[in-house]
From TrEMBL:
Cross-referenced Gene3D superfamilies: GpdQ, beta-strand dimerisation domain, GpdQ, catalytic alpha/beta sandwich domain
Pfam family, one: Metallophos
GO molecular function: 3',5'-cyclic-nucleotide phosphodiesterase activity; metal ion binding
Organism listed in the record: Roseibium album
Name of the molecule in the record: 3',5'-cyclic adenosine monophosphate phosphodiesterase CpdA
InterPro entries listed in its UniProt record: Calcineurin-like_PHP, CNP_phosphodiesterase-III, GpdQ/CpdA-like, GpdQ_beta-strand, GpdQ_catalytic, Metallo-depent_PP-like
Length: 278
């Protein structure tokens, strides 16, 4: 079985500074890394789907390098709207695919235990919305034709609507062009996104699309029209995407924090539950 961990929207800050003055994103990202390193089965790779930093500050990338260096498996990065493609290329140059420069964007493919990962760059400088551009889309089409292995597409901005209006207003501007490229390719089994700071499952171009929650603060769930842009501290989490020939790709959400348990379901296994002594 292949296991790919997805973390997103870390919004790392310079040491000692909080995000939006109240969100200690560095501390929460540290907890997420500890959680990943404590898994009973370690991931074969880590995919970070954007907003690694909050302001693309070199001090934030320094925090990122220190944090991500604890993983002994490949870490794949791609920019979000809070990053910058140039800043990530300059500060994270040692990571797979980051040094490649096409049209000022970072996009690349990699093989992870028989799974093709295609990382796309939806950063649009100076804007919260996303944009891929013709050169990147042409490269994507060629990459999908070249390799028919089970494929995961990763990008920051979701190309489909989520119902959270203020986040949908910051979506992918050329989603229709991406849909045209992806639709014919049945070996694309999953689209991974971040950006919305919530666990969401939907579809796009006939593929399952999953949006991972942030390792830090979450966007408040409000599906009303004209709802305010708010965030809260719902439990942080990340996604684990497992793959085998028997199951295909299956996505699990794992919480960062520890909870009581696990407990056996059946008492005949010689285990009692808390309170049984009464």
């Amino acid at each position: 079985m292949t296991l790919i961990a997805q973390i997103t929207d870390l919004h790392l800050r310079p040491k000692g500074l909080a995000c939006y003055r109240v969100s200690d994103t560095n501390m929460m990202a540290e907890r997420a890394v500890r959680s990943l390193l404590s898994l009973t089965q370690q991931a074969d790779a880590i995919v970070v789907t954007g907003d690694l930093t909050d302001r693309s500050d070199p001090r934030e990338y320094a925090v990122a390098r220190e944090l991500l260096s604890r993983f002994e498996v490949p870490v794949f990065l791609l920019p979000g709207n809070h990053d910058s493609s140039e800043g990530m290329r300059r500060e994270m140059a040692g990571y797979p695919g980051i040094g490649e420069n096409r049209d000022g964007k970072i996009f690349y493919s990699a093989m992870i235990e028989g799974i093709q990962l295609i990382a796309l760059d939806s950063h649009l400088s100076g804007h919260p919305q996303g944009y891929l551009g013709n050169e990147q889309l042409s490269w994507l089409e060629a990459a999908l034709r070249k390799c028919d292995a089970p494929t995961i597409i990763a990008l920051h901005h979701p190309p489909a609507l989520t119902g959270i209006e203020h986040m949908d207003n910051m979506g992918l501007n050329d989603a229709a062009a991406l849909e045209e490229v992806l639709s014919p390719h049945t070996h694309v089994q999953r689209i991974l996104c971040g950006h919305v700071h919530r666990p969401i499952v939907t579809s796009f171009a006939g593929k399952i699309m999953t949006l991972a929650p942030s390792t830090g603060h979450q966007v408040a769930l409000d599906l009303r029209e004209n709802s305010p842009a708010m965030f809260n501290f719902e439990p942080a989490a990340y996604f684990l995407h497992s793959h085998s020939e028997k199951t295909g790709i299956v996505t699990h959400m794992a919480y960062v924090e520890n909870f009581p348990g696990p407990y056996h379901f059946f008492a005949d296994q010689g285990v009692t539950w808390p309170g049984d002594e009464n």
